[in-house]
């Protein structure tokens, strides 16, 4: 195994990109054959190392028993993330190293974070999915297909208003915004139609990032092309002047949008740095959407593997809650175990260490921050899912600090494994794989959901806020109260809720670290995603279009004299 780069992670020299380029990849047909996909009619190669898998193959294996599904989540993260993807990849590779057949299923990275603060999102070091340059950038074009389908709907809506407005759409009640896969705060609020009548109606508009598009959510939650088209038709896009709903189907948009997405719905097969199969498909964010890869990819992996490792975005309060309360319930998945990724640096942040100097955090900061880990352990246990803590280690972590975390986990009666997958690949995640396998019961128990679909919308929100976040109460703005009334009038109160809030805190205040209790959650508004099949309460000051940082990662990404990409780490 090649050495990794010097810095936070160890004493060696190679960057993620250099490690990726030095890996010995297998032709994608070999990776497919190892999964049992041998008929070339079921595989559409896109170059040597990536391919689309036909939905017809999923139909062929639909009656096979499912493997074990392991969900990877985390504590409340720092701005740079705590390595969930690295741990997920390492864990799947470790299962294979132990002689089990395993596949990892992940979301597709968004160009926003890639060129923003986080950089590449394909894992790191010796625990990556490859080809990382393709995966981090345009990959197989799925994100562009979602962007095109979404913006086609926006264009058809404005075109309908321009040419007579037969449906009597109220231009002040158009809900759909445009989207793009890039961080651009200047496009959050715009005015369209300037320059005369020929340019369409003048109205306020704006953009969201593609990962927040309902079309992305629909793609991830659909089990077939037929279901995809049906969900698109149900998208609520506007209201008429007499307050009647207007859906994408009313605009005649469903067919053309489905055509743009007919290849994007097929899962993408790639491999890890150790040639473990990886299905990477769809990319909703967990702070503003449901935050997991597609149901189709996970369902396919479960039919072909003993252990499937899947990742949910951010902490257990966001990605894991949404996966368990929405995705697993809709898809009928059983979750055998959950891994909670923790780092010493993040625990120090939650214990009061200054965010700009986490390396200067003390043992006292670490001990104080353990309450955050405790809350996430409690969250997973509420669902009735066995939990294992993965302590993702960095070079600066000391033995004494590691012992503090391990002691806390022992007190909590939860297994804790040290993970060094970044440096050592599968070998650095063997302890984790063994402890996860040992934690899985012979018979997986049904998930204990935080709410029932028959509960009122207010009760669903309160259950999540009080049980998963630790809030004392939920309050609603007048706008949110009007949204509740509208949801009731439309007969949509039976939908699940997918809360949008900051990922930086268990509360809706991004500056409130640790494990706060008895705070107030403020619901600003509630968006209706009737195509995706959930309601989106907007809590706190959450943006559906992120902005770039003062020093974005885009400044470090470039081409060298040979035309090779540099800085994509």
Overview of the molecule:
35% of the residues lie in helices and 18% in strands. Strands 1, 2, 3, 4, 5, 6, 14, 15, 16, 17, 18 and 19 form a twelve-stranded mixed sheet that branches. A three-stranded antiparallel sheet has the order 7-12-13, with no helix packed on it. Mean pLDDT is 95; it is low at 1-12. It contains 19 helices and 24 strands. The protein has 569 residues and is of the alpha/beta class. The chain has three domains: 66-140 and 264-439, Rossmann fold (3-Layer(aba) Sandwich); 142-261, 2-Layer Sandwich (Domain 2, N(10)-formyltetrahydrofolate synthetase), CATH 3.30.1510; 457-539, Formyltetrahydrofolate synthetase, domain 3, CATH 3.10.410.10. Strand 23 and strand 24 form a beta hairpin. The longest helix has 21 residues, at 142-162.
